Amino acid sequence: MNPIQRNIRLFKIDAFLAGIWPLSTLAIIYFEQITHSYALAMLVWSVANLTQTFLEIPTGIFSDKIGRRKTLMMAALTILICFLLWALAGQFEMVSLLFIGALFWGLSDAFLSGTNEALMYETMNELNEKGDFATLYAKSNFWVQCGLGLSALFAAGWTYFYSLQSLAWISVFPIAGQLVTAWLFVEPKRTQQQTRTTSWAHFLIAFRRLWRNKKLRFYATISVIDEAVGFAFLRIEASYYSTLIQTWLINIVRFVKQVSGMIGFAIAPLFKRFGSVKCFFGALTLNEFLRMIALLLNDTFSPFIMALRNMCWGVSDTAKTDILQQEFSDNQRATMQSIISLVKGILGAIIMYLFGVIADISGPRMAVVTAMCVKIMVLIVSFIILKKGKKNVRTGKI
Q1: I want to staple 228 with a disulfide (CB 3.0 to 4.6 A). Which of 97, 150, 348, 381 is the partner?
Q2: Are 113 and 55 in contact (CB under 8 A)?
Q3: CA 182, CA 70: separation in Å to the nearest integer?
Q4: With contact defined as beta carbons under 8 Å apart, do 158 and 327 qualify?
Q5: Which of 47, 122, 75 is CA-nearest to residue 350?
Q6: Which residue, among 293, 298, 292, 287, has the nearest Cα to 245 in the 3D structure?
Q7: pLDDT tens-digit map of 210-256
């Protein structure tokens, strides 16, 4: 049996451990309790995004040239340090530790960005099962959602009796398991036999290939805007929910959300026959429709309706990743993803802080409405471009 076969099981274990973060749902509320400002609380995430942004390219090159396994080990170590600093920040009421922790979060995300998907794709390629990459990706993310769901359920019970500070300390321990799984991964032969080029040349090759590929450029742009806005919404959503339901119930909403995500990733392979493009845009459209219904109701049912959107995300994320991975070049796979994440990080940091300002001035609901409007505009423009592209094909203009 090919030794790399064991990566298949490790992906699922690693994904489950990555989801075990009990503080996840209430992190923005925890930060606000320390900083006493939504804008500053969101700025913590902005710093994390900017750190990731500035380190995207070097860590992407590190992954392509040094190896996936070592890169994943560095990602696990730095996120462990981040969680420890954030627990200490609440313990000693030190805002500075939140921002230092954000630097380590950004570093971890930069190491992880593109590496996990690249390792999956290269593992399947080495096993001559490249066509099943999307299925493996969906199954692995199913376990991420499972971990997040169990975390939310645990956090709901815990915060009913105890403080967020104690939850921050509990969150430190599960992540240590990722160090073990990262060490156990088998390095693909492609990265073991990586050609020797300078880092600058490696980056230029990746950038040129990304820019010259029109299809990749189009979907990369959509991915950048969608994920930047989506990440900002993820960080502000608990603040909006807290205006509608009690704090401990927010974790019940998060549990429903993760179960929805599990369903989404479980059914994603079933839609494979429709093609990744149709799945991607269909899921994004349904996602915003559900969010619109929730915002119009604006009552205790709204958080639970929004939680159901995660089913759509499971399908759209699988489809998007499949599209991008098929277009990436073999030797610059992680670096090309890092370039996309670089732009996403810059945009995301700006959007997160702006959402925090909007929440301070007009309330969290207005920040969520803004997120919905931006995403709907992106969808409309995307449909226009796709329709124009099909027309050009029929008329022979391209």
Answers
A1: 348
A2: no
A3: 8
A4: no
A5: 47
A6: 298
A7: 888 888 888 888 888 888 888 778 777 878 888 888 877 887 887 88
